[in-house]
Amino acid sequence: MDETFAPPVEELVPLLAAFATAADEGHITRAAQRLGVPQSSLSRRLKAVERSVGVPLFQPLGRGIALTAAGRELFDRTRDLVGALDDAVTVVRSHADADSGLVRFGFPLTLGPVSIPSLLADFHGSAPRIRLHLVQAHGEALAEMIRDGRLDLAVMIPAPTDLPAITLGHQRIHLYVGRDHRLAGQGTAELCDLAAESFIANPPTYHLRHLLDTLCAAAGFTPKVVFEITEFDTLRALVARNLGIALLPEPETPHPDLHRIALSIPVQRSVGLVSGHHRPTPAVARLRDFVARHAYSTVAAASTGPST
């Protein structure tokens, strides 16, 4: 349904800033200086406000001015609106500025202690006025936040096929066991030899769990998952205590009680920088381009790890 404003409202909208400033200052000269306009111009705007409303809004008070009862009521009812409009314009302008604005950035649970903070620290050094809202979550949650507009960009492993993505690199998946596990002395392992082992894994909604189930099915068995957990540091701690084995990416910080075993058939996942289908703001485009340029020395290098 189409809505129209009453003529007085349409006339008042561009004049409310002058009214609010004069009411706040209680002095025509100071209000004009604050607005950066001649005193005569401000006086004309205030008269226009009074004509539009139809009642006096100001009265003389010594060398200054004071609000009438009607003026006080108008000020009380409109000052929050003027402030909100000022905030909205400030935000919109900042979003149009490649040197400022807000970027909502997500990254996966398998990255974070080293590569992402290093990358964002370098970006902040080059664009200190851009604010970053950070979210760390598993892949499907990040994808949903990109799709519904809650995130502007996200590093995902792998990138979903329905969203625009830039490939940053690849993440190698290895078998991890505790230092005292019977397989700890091996350099490589065949998946088909792991059918009797207990596994520690993510819940079924996680990509790594789907990968584990798929690989084991291809090797002819269903993995016996004895622990399901979302948090990767705890998952590695459980493996280190010989409570099971796990297929995992290289940790960004070394874990002294884990032994890495290469799979006989290399397994890797693509690392993608994902964005939505909407047009990015200049600040979002700036971070996207920065991550794409620097990925191979940060995200991709850290997530791939040395091959074995």
UniProtKB/TrEMBL annotation:
Belongs to the LysR transcriptional regulatory family. This is LysR family transcriptional regulator. Keywords: Activator, DNA-binding, Transcription, Transcription regulation. Residues 15-68 form the HTH lysR-type domain. Transmembrane segments: none annotated. One of its GO terms (cellular component) is protein-DNA complex. Pfam families: HTH_1, LysR_substrate. InterPro entries: LysR_HTH_N, LysR_subst-bd, WH-like_DNA-bd_sf, WH_DNA-bd_sf. One of its GO terms (molecular function) is DNA-binding transcription factor activity. It comes from the Bacteria.
